[in-house]
Amino acid sequence: MEAPRLISWNLTRVCNLACAHCYLDAVQRRREAQGELTTDEALRVVEEIGALAPGAMLVLTGGEPLARRDLDALVTAAAHCGLMPVIGSNGTLLDARRAATLRAAGAVGVGISLDSITPEFHDRLRGQEGAWDRAVTGLRAAREAGLAVQVHTTLFRENLDGIEALADFAEEIGALALNLFFLVCTGRGVTQTDLEGGEYEAALARIAALQAKRDRPMIRARCAPYVRRMLGLHAGDGNGGHASWSSACLAARSYFRITPEGRVTACPYIPKAAGDLRAQPLAEIWETAGDFRRLREELPRGKCGGCDYRFSCGGCRARALATSGELMGEDAKCGYLPPPDAAPEARPAPDAHTIAWTPEAQALLARIPGFVRNRVRSRLEEAAAREDARAITLDFMRAHRPQRAFFAALGGRPQEGTAASPGSAEPAGRMRPAATR
Fold first, then answer.
1. Residue 136 to residues 95, 99, 175, 177: CA-CA distances in angstroms?
2. Which segments of 272-420 does DSSP mark as H helices, in order?
3. 66 pLDDT band (50/70/90 cuts)?
4. Beta strands in 260-357 (DSSP E)
């Protein structure tokens, strides 16, 4: 079974803002909310994650994670376990001093929410005047401290016109990525106006166009697996920066979420717990939880189950659950109608890895952090196929270095001796980052 490559952990429900669309329904308090994992419990969970998913990216978020007084200790523990700690924040509490302490603790990056190119909409959505200015200050402080930065934007009708301007801004500050999230109406998000099907299609077309014409930052649609279908990519296909590892939703396949109380769900927008870390080992939940197995093994129902992109896309399971009450129901937001002669997509064959790897190259690949290992492998195998290489060797890996810019953007700190190790860390604002999911 594939190990998870990405884990999102809501460390706390405490937050200094009152965002109208918060999926966690976070609370404004000065002290920790009741029932949250203690520091000792959280440190034990970090060890379990490290054992289950070595090299995975661990996103520590909230609420507002900077409201947790033990954040630095958790970051340090995660880094010592071989994980890649990233902070998911609203940015308003992040200044130069705090960014430097996070970097020193072992954090490799931050993702900060910025929902418009000007303050008005962002401040209104976040429930606090001045939130936009402080978020931008946090982004700049993180970049100056040597942290990789990602800009996170939730899309509404009110901010759709600003996508291109946000991409310009993200490039100007040296962001590694601009992640554009399509709302899933859970938590306080049920009070918000979601996009209609046609608006989804139009927004995704604009995002795909931005992806195609820009080298940086990476521009990615989140919670919208339909982009695979819009690009005409079936499961296992590669095209530009889109390869087999970008197919469909990652929930319960290579991704899960932990709540502040230690419950495990398939993604942040699926509220039903698959297990409780205070009662069960994490590995047991990952391998045996019923809903996790359903997401891996069952086909979706309705139009998603008969679609000619049912494996490549499959619809958003959280959105199906939120709108129909059925985890494996159809995603009603997708307006796609297959051609009359289109057959349902066949289940993709297991990855056969037809390009040979020498034992030394395989050993080197295994030392690359897990969250990016499949991406490195895919890019190297694509390069080997283009160049008609007989096998991937150590020399081939070192000659191609497919993730050099990626790790430089993370501060130039990959695991020592990997093919990804850069000779020097180049500022992210002047590099061409490698494509990710």
1. 10, 13, 12, 15
2. 282-288, 290-297, 302-305, 317-324, 359-366, 370-386, 394-400, 404-409
3. very high
4. 263-265, 275-276, 356-357
Q: Are 281 and 214 in contact (CB under 8 A)?
A: no
pTM exceeds 0.70 for this model = yes
**CA dist., res. 382 & res. 300, Å (int):** 31
C-beta separation of 285 from 272 below 8 A: no
Amino acid making up residue 370: G
More confident residue, 386 or 278: 278
Using DSSP, state whether 407 is helix, strand or coil.
Answer: helix
> Which three-class secondary structure state does DSSP give residue 357?
strand
Answer whether the bond into residue 217 is a cis peptide, omega within 30°. yes
- What is the rounded distance in angstroms from the CA atom of residue 87 to the CA atom of residue 132? 18
57-61 and 6-10 strand pairing: parallel
pLDDT of residue 409: 40
Nearest-5° Cα angle at 211, 116 to 213: 110
